[in-house]
Every structure is written in structure tokens, then in C-alpha cells.
Amino acid sequence: MTAISHVYNYTVRCPHIKDPAHPTTWENHIEFNQSCEIGLSRITKWHGRSGNRIFELDGFVVREAEAEGAYFSMQNKRMKDDGHVLVTFKIFMDELTKDTSVQEIMQHLIADFDKKVAKL
Fold first, then answer.
1. CA 97 to the chain's CA centroid
2. pTM of the model
3. Which residue has better confidence, 106 or 24?
4. What is the number of alpha carbons within 13 Å of residue 112 lying toward its C-beta?
5. CA torsion angle for 93, 97, 101, 103 (degrees, to 10)?
6. Domain range spanning residue 54?
7. pLDDT-based confidence at 17, cuts 50/70/90?
8. Residue 92: left if φ>0, alpha if ψ -120 to 50, beta else—which one?
9. Structural domains in the chain (count)
10. Cβ neighbours of residue 65 under 8 Å, at least 6 residues apart?
11. pLDDT at residue 1 greater than cutoff 60
12. Staple 63 to which of 39, 51, 79, 86, CB 3.0 to 4.6 Å?
């Protein structure tokens, strides 16, 4: 049996646009942490309420949460030397950013994740 040796959690908060003269984007609101607590909490929550499958991208199934304006995905990946990486993604959306592409955000996050895993 192998252990989860690395945990990566991404959270993106698509911001309310408050000042059109100084626009902000989701790229300025990416949070990254390696908290096992957050990863386990997300797995527990999402296991009980799996949401609606929206699309699949590079092996990641993205679901829309039923009770909140959020999208989520998670995956584990086997590494050399018998380790595992667990990654979770959560994207919060709001009415003002509903035209933002969840697929574009996921592409960006997956690329960042792949870079991190390549360094292990």
C-alpha cells in the first residue's frame, strides 16, 4: 500500500468586479496550499454530494456543486518511489463573472499542477 505523500489544493475565487477602471481577474485570485486537512475535508464533502458532471479535461472530471456557485475536481496520481499526489480544485463563481470560462481556469490549474509534479 502506498501513502499520499503530497497534497495540493487549488482554490480560485472569481472576484466581483468593483472598479471597471482597475479590472481584476481570476488569475489574481488563485490560492494554493498543501493542507491535508483541506484535502480530506473536500474529499469527504464531495463524496457525499457529488454534484453534476459538467465536463472532463485531461482526465479531470469537473462537477458543479448543487448548493453553491462552485465547481470542483480532484484526482490522485501515482508517483515514482511508491508515493501518491492528491490534488483538489475548487472554483467559486458569481453572477458578475458567469461568462468566465471554467474550462480555461481548469486548463491553467492543471498546467500549474503538472509543473509542480514534474519537479518531484
1. 17
2. 0.88
3. 106
4. 18
5. -10
6. 3-118
7. low
8. beta
9. 1
10. 49, 51, 71, 72
11. no
12. 51
